[in-house]
Amino acid sequence: MPNVSVSADGGYLTLSEPSRSARFHAIWLRDNAWDAQTRAPGNGQRLITLSDIPRGTRIAAAAIAGSSLRVTFAPEGKSVDYDRDWLFAQSYDHPQDRQAGWTAEGVETWDASLMQSVPCGDFTEVSANPAALQRWLAGVARYGFAKLVNGPVEDGALMKVVELFGYVRETNYGRHFEVRTTVNPTNLAYTGLGLQAHTDNPYRDPVPTVQVLYCLESSAAGGENMVVDGFRAAERLHGEDPEGFGILTRYCARFEYAGEAGVRLRSRRPMIELAPDGEMIAVRFNNRSAAAITDVPFDQMEHYYAAYRRLGEIIDDPAMEVTFRLNPGECFVVDNTRVLHARKGYSGTGTRWLQGCYADKDGLLSRLAALETMEAAE
């Protein structure tokens, strides 16, 4: 049977069930009340500020009421019902000593072994079927990227992909940019040089968090796309050299772009970014856009560069890469805060035409969460 007990001073309660137990403070419970005077019924936004809650709020009484927990607060004399499952889902009563570099629930890091099951969706299906769209977006959220096939072969088709989950983020490159090359073997044997795996636009703050690359022509040999999980690369570095991992998280790199008139973009961020509690939240790696590193102390600079070099070697390791060829009407969506992308070299006759654009992850995750909520309600 469920049970609730209140501490002697009313500062917190303990909610216990046969398989779970958690403590909740009075101020936390009052701040997270869902009654109509505290939260707007339509959108759930708070109607009060913390200063509207009396200082010294305490729990006067608490009792189980079916699937709910009823709590009465003093000095207000206000009673609020809480869904017990909701409370346990929001519980903060657990150890907080996680190792630096942990990843959020639902994030799955990967290496070349993912080549056997690259997350992929069908454009027609995800456009018409919410369940298929949910599965495809869930793949992006879990792995940091996913392909989409059988799309229209038409100029600007990538905008239809972004419309599935969010909005285009316009930059100085425009709403989209062209990646078009004509291979001419009479000049060079390999005119399409490969690119090292990188994240895009690290010189922006904030960076575009989603990138779409859409193929319209692909008749040249080679030019396969490649993705590398930056989180897995950082995990490998941490396993080999915890101090090197730490130094790349503690000190900022600098990135810069000044490739066109009137534009001078600069940012200052760590190559491996952690939240204050140690969660890995971003990787920025782009040698072409790296500016002089000036925020590392003199006595740490050599160690910093050693860790930087090793991270690059891990990223370049073929055991880390997933490679695939995009054909006309195919694209991939990549989490630009996590997954690095690259292009293999290409040669021979033919053309290669891709279009790219940026969007933001908040829209993608919002669409996914809404679809998951809809499924749960059915």
Can you walk me through this structure?
- InterPro entries: AlphaKG_dependent_hydroxylases, GBBH-like_N_sf, TauD-like_sf, TauD/TfdA-like.
- This is TauD/TfdA family dioxygenase.
- Belongs to the gamma-BBH/TMLD family.
- The protein has 378 residues and is an alpha+beta fold.
- The protein has 2 domains: 3-89, NE0471 N-terminal domain-like; 112-377, Double-stranded beta-helix, CATH 3.60.130.
- Helices cover 24% and strands 30% of the residues.
- It has 9 helices and 22 strands.
- It has helices at 26-31, 84-89, 123-128, 130-143, 158-162, 230-240, 242-250, 301-316, 361-377; strands at residues 3-6, 12-17, 20-25, 58-65, 68-74, 78-83, 120-122, 145-149, 177-182, 195-198, 210-218, 221-222, 225-229, 253-257, 265-269, 272-274, 280-283, 321-324, 331-335, 339-343, 346-347, 351-359.
- It has a 6-stranded mixed β-sheet with strand order 7-8-19-11-22-9.
- Strand 1 and strand 2 form a beta hairpin.
- Helix 6 crosses helix 7, helix 6 (230-240) crosses helix 8 and helix 7 crosses helix 8.
- The longest helix is centred in the last third of the chain and has 17 residues, at 361-377.
- It is globular.
- Mean pLDDT is 93; it is low at 184-191.
